[in-house]
Write a structure and sequence with these properties.
Blueprint: H1 2-11, E1 17-20, H2 33-40, E2 45-48, H3 56-69, E3 74-76, H4 83-94, E4 102-104, H5 112-122, E5 130-132, H6 139-150, E6 158-160, H7 168-175, E7 186-188, H8 195-205, E8 214-216, H9 224-231, E9 242-244, H10 251-261, E10 270-272, H11 279-287, E11 298-300, H12 308-312, E12 322-324
Parallel strand pairs: 1-2, 2-3, 3-4, 4-5, 5-6, 6-7, 7-8, 8-9, 9-10, 10-11, 11-12
């Protein structure tokens, strides 16, 4: 009965996923060869149920059979809390996954040392397109180790490093190599602490990232100065379609700086400036310009202390795009 229950758990869910319940060993050798082959032929992904495991080494020993035997393209270990030890063990297997496309390590207790272990083999994952390391604790040191190998990840299109205690130094290390990542289209460094200095370092290289379409820098303590640095270069980013600067400290002056450059952002369709203390003064300066930004389809100004008078200024723009207050 227990074996049947385990097999039932494996079979549930998306046909593209192979699920190991709670990180426990699934004894596939106890399942008939015909059924096992039929099952695994449809699965190129491994996903652990989101639950921390007690024995990391045992977990990876159990995964070894599947990683070595099948063409794994999607490995999802989020919320399993593998830590630095698990990162070291995982790195030993990644080099044997040449077809790996999507790696999710969100909220896994990974620090700088673990990031370094992963960085040592990422360059061997030639097909890796999506890497999620959000909600870990890699800090500036871990960010630097990852940045050093990003140029070797030619297929990397989506990178999520949100909520990782990265400051201006780590931001600078990433900014220095972004131009070497021609495929990078989606970059999320939200809820770190890069500040105006880090924002300036990113701004300085945006023109060298022709594929970058989605940039999320929300919750990063960016003020008017940082907004001004972005404003100076946004017109040089022809592919940028989604810019999220919500939850910062941009204020009226920063909003005005951004507004002045919006007409030159030919591809910008989504701009989030919510929760920035912009107020009616900043709203007035924004409203005077966006009507000439033909590509803009969504503008979020929520939680900015904008009153009825400020909202009224955007009535003409609402015929062109969605404005949220």
């Amino acid at each position: 009965m227990a074996e049947n229950l385990t097999l039932a758990k494996i079979l549930q869910g998306d046909p593209a996923d192979f699920i190991i319940p709670d990180g426990r060993k699934v004894l596939m050798n106890q399942v008939s060869g015909t059924l096992r082959n039929a099952l695994m032929s449809k699965r190129q992904s491994i996903r652990l149920v989101a639950k921390p495991v007690q024995n990391i080494e045992e977990l990876f020993n159990n995964l070894e059979f599947f990683i070595n035997s099948y063409n794994i393209v999607h490995l999802n270990l989020r919320h399993v809390i593998i830590g630095n030890e698990g990162s070291q063990l995982l790195s030993e297997y990644l080099s044997r996954c040449p077809s790996l496309v999507h790696l999710n390590l969100r909220n896994d207790g990974i620090k700088a040392e673990g990031a370094g272990s992963l960085a040592a083999v990422l360059g061997q994952c030639a097909s890796l397109a999506h890497l999620d390391l959000s909600a870990n604790r890699i800090g500036d040191e871990g960010a630097g180790r990852l940045a050093a190998v990003l140029g070797q990840c030619a297929s990397l299109a989506h990178l999520n490093l949100s909520d990782n205690r990265i400051g201006a130094e780590g931001a600078g290390r990433f900014a220095a190599v972004l131009g070497q990542c021609p495929s990078l289209a989606h970059l999320d460094i939200s809820y770190n602490k890069i500040g105006d200095e880090g924002a300036g370092r990113f701004a300085a290289v945006l023109g060298q990232c022709p594929s970058l379409a989605h940039l999320d820098l929300s919750g990063n303590r960016i003020g008017d100065e940082g907004a001004g640095r972005f404003a100076a270069v946004l017109g040089q980013c022809p592919s940028l379609a989604h810019l999220d600067l919500s939850g910062n400290r941009i204020g009226a002056e920063g909003a005005a700086s951004l507004a002045a450059v919006l007409p030159r952002c030919a591809s910008l369709a989504h701009l989030d400036l919510s929760d920035n203390g912009i107020g009616d003064e900043g709203a007035k300066r924004l409203a005077a310009v966006p009507g000439r930004c033909a590509s803009l389809a969504y503008l979020d100004l929520g939680f900015n202390g904008i009153g009825d008078e400020g909202e009224a200024m955007f009535i003409p723009l609402q015929q062109q795009c969605t404005v949220v207050f």
